[in-house]
Specification:
With about 325 residues, the protein is an all-alpha fold. About 80% of the residues lie in helices and about 0% in strands. The chain starts with a helix and ends with a helix. The radius of gyration is 20 Å and the shape is globular. It is built from 11 helices and no strands.
């Protein structure tokens, strides 16, 4: 039994590491697209989810087929395929995590660097702890408060370095948008961790992502956009969007859900602490973004704070 538990934990760690690496490339790809063409945020989101859609539909169809094969003859699968009591929650959580959060994230990326975006966004594990204490009445210890302070001092230092490099109000606008994304994504992680064990990784992720896709498509239509406007982008831009859809959206979304199920949200945050450094390295290499001592100090402080908060939270849960 212990060996099986250990194997599950190792698998969870590998999945979360891979998801952190893939998610980290999303901001870099978005900045490359923004540099190449004047694409709006909603156009980017629609293309991203449009190329992702076949994979989520395919996974849902596979889940349906698997479910039907496992049912005894004479039982109607239609009424019990997805637990009705969890459907609305899954739809809302999916829209929160991959429609609202994504909208805030890609809007913010228009105004700040990919490296700074990842540092600010990485505050979400500390917010998971804070909101977890509010919603689920989990007590925040004194040392956790200290860890939270370290994280936000690190964000302030990294943000201050960004201000030195990019004068003006735009960086403030971008910072607020990205922090809003961190808040909404922290709720996604907190709430989805409660539902995934009841529904299953594949089914939850498929329904959540299809719900977010529907929200994005409705936004696109209500905003008065035309599908014809998506056809004039170059093959290179479309290739970047396919890469973003498949390798920084579809694959890591299943990896992170599966990892959450195996090791929990706190351990996931600890392992994902490598994310900011991966993004910063990618942004330096592919985008030529500067990275100085202040950014390094700020990033390290954020990572240390998140590690402290997540480790203590896991100890309490155990």
């Amino acid at each position: 039994m212990k060996k099986q538990h250990s194997s599950e934990a190792i698998t969870g760690v590998i999945l979360v590491l891979l998801s952190a690496f893939l998610f980290s490339a999303k901001a870099v790809l978005a900045k490359l697209v923004y540099r190449e063409v004047p694409m709006t945020v909603i156009q980017l989101l629609v293309l991203r989810m449009l190329f992702s859609l076949p994979f989520y539909l395919g996974m849902l169809a596979w889940q349906w087929r698997k479910f039907n094969q496992e049912q005894p003859s004479g039982i109607s699968a239609k009424s019990i395929f997805f637990p009705k009591e969890h459907l609305l929650a899954t739809v809302l959580i999916g829209c929160l995590g991959y429609y609202i959060s994504s909208l805030l994230d890609f809007c913010g990326l228009k105004f700040i660097s990919a490296g700074l975006e990842r540092v600010i966004l990485f505050a979400y594990p500390t917010l998971v702890v804070i909101f977890g204490s509010i919603i689920f009445k989990t007590k925040i210890a004194r040392h956790q408060i200290f860890a939270l302070l370290i994280s936000y001092i690190g964000i302030a230092i990294a943000f201050g370095a960004g201000l030195e490099q990019n004068k003006g109000a735009e960086i403030w606008k971008g910072g607020v948008l990205i922090f809003g994304c961190a808040i909404t994504f922290s709720f996604y992680v907190l709430l989805s961790a409660k539902l995934i064990p009841k529904i299953g990784v594949g089914l939850f992720t498929s329904v959540a992502m299809l719900s977010a896709t529907t929200g994005i498509f409705l936004h696109f239509i209500v905003a008065g956009n035309s599908a014809a406007g998506l056809l004039h982008f170059s093959p290179h831009v479309m290739l970047l969007m396919v890469l973003m859809a498949v390798f920084t959206t579809v694959v890591p979304s299943y990896f992170v859900s599966s990892g959450l199920k195996r090791i929990g949200s706190s351990n996931m945050a600890i392992i994902s602490s490598i994310g900011p450094m991966i993004t910063i390295a990618q942004a330096w290499y592919f985008l030529g973004e500067p990275f100085g001592w202040l950014q390094a100090i700020g990033t390290i402080l954020v990572m240390v704070g998140v590690l402290m908060v997540s480790k203590k939270a896991e100890a309490v849960n155990e």
